[in-house]
Each structure stands twice: as structure tokens, then as C-alpha cells.
């Protein structure tokens, strides 16, 4: 019997043992925030976690209140329990310079190519090259061990790597780098590099997590993304339902409000007892708000059911009313840990 037939798995189970966590989601769902909270949760037991941003938006630095991050790994946060979160803003141009130096020893030539605009030209006409360079940096960090090649059996440099990946509409093409570079290089160093990248991405210790809202469009993109990733033979992780708002009514109250059967007279009487002005008009406006809330809750429950039908484990994160800041990020981290996400 499949996991889908058994019902959704717990988030903690699907994260356990994974070393590369790829986080995707429709724009506006809070993907970067979720990736950061996940990195902190995975570091909560004293671990070292690398958070990699690949879109060049500097969303991680903004979230943590830091200056723009350079193309180098640096510690950005200490987590209660002794853990550390490091961050890297991956850049295709810098990754190409590193690649040329590593495999050909021609960094200066690469710098000359940059000045001539050849790098931008190459990655524009061959976007698969850009993607393999960006994913390659994250997957190299997954494989890296303390002591490098001198100690191939030494401990891993990072306990886990979290990638703040492109949106769901592009995630399949971004991760399927072997297919993307097939027409560019069938043999040689670029192809070998792509093969090593795909070896990590296809590993049983890699998970692709999806961030959604309880809204129709993000949920549809999530379902489509899960189907695409599954078709590629990659391992789906959890669905993080972000910005969840609580229901303000009882089940009976929700049913009454959704049916438009609110007792306006009783509502107006209560408002008059509270000595509010123009209670009759206010009761009509308030009834409309309550009905809209009930209909939204009904829609969210339907959307949640559709997400649950994917069979992926679901993890809820609340809407942070005061906006994102240090305290809010810590609260989201704690909610992840409470729902089983640990190293």
C-alpha cells in the first residue's frame, strides 16, 4: 500500500535524514521566510545548516536585517541549542568563475569573458548552464566534508543544506539540469558537473518542499508542482501551508453565517447593549463581515482537502499579524519544531 493510501505522512518523518531541502512555492507565499525557518529548525539541535539563495533577490539578507550577502558562505544566525545557520547568495557569474578556476585554472580568462559580456550571453542562450551552476553550488555544499579530499570519510561540513529555490512554475526545469544541458554538452566537464548535480538531487536524502496558501491559485500550482517533481523521479517533501488564519466561529456559527442566516435583530440588540452608535446599520455591516469570514473558512477547508489529496505531509504556519521580524521568525521556527521538523 502506498503512502498516499495510508494517508499523509508526518512532516518530521519526511525531513528526517534528508541533507538537501529544496523549498519552492508560488510568488507571494512566503517561500524565503519558510526556507529560513526550516534552516533554523534543522539547526536547533546544535547543527550547522547552510541556507542557499539562488534567485539574486537578496531576500535572505532582508529577512535577517543584514547587508546584501556576498558570494561566500558566512554565519548569519545562532540558534538556541548551539546551532548555526550560514547563508550563501549564489550567483551564476561567480559560480562560473569558480568553475573555470576549479576545472581549467583560467579564472583570469573568465574575468575577461565577464567584461566582454560573454557570461551573460552564454547563460541567456543556454539557461540550463545558469541553473546547473547555481544548483551545483548547493549540491557541492551537501557533499563537502571537513578536511576536503584529504579526508573523504570525514564529517560533513554541513548537517543540512536548505535551498531557497525558484517558484513552482520553474522548479521542474531548474532541477532537471541533466535534460537542460543535454543539448549543450553531451560529454566533457560540463556534462560531468551536471551528472554530479543530478546525483545529489535524485538522492534519497533530498526533498523538494512546497509552500502554499489556502487559496486556489497557490494550491493549484502546488499540486501541479508535486505532479511534475514526482514525474521527474524526485522526492517530494512536505507541503507548508503558510499564513494560516484561525476560525473565529464555532462550527454551528460557521454554518449559520455561510448560509446567510445571521439574526440581525439579535445582533443589533447586542450592539445596542454595548452602547454603540447606529447599531442597526452596524449590525448589517458586521453580518456581511461574518458571512465573508465563514465563506472564506469554507473555501480554505476545501483547498486544504485538495492539498491533502496529494499525499504529502502538511505543516501549518500561522499568519504573523505584526509582519516579519526576528520574533516572528523565531515563532515560525518553533512551530516547525513542534510539528516534528528536527535535524
From TrEMBL:
Residues in ArsA/GET3 Anion-transporting ATPase-like domain copies: 21-192
SUPFAM superfamilies, alphabetized: P-loop containing nucleoside triphosphate hydrolases
Protein name, UniProt field: ArsA-related P-loop ATPase
Source organism (scientific name): Nocardiopsis lambiniae
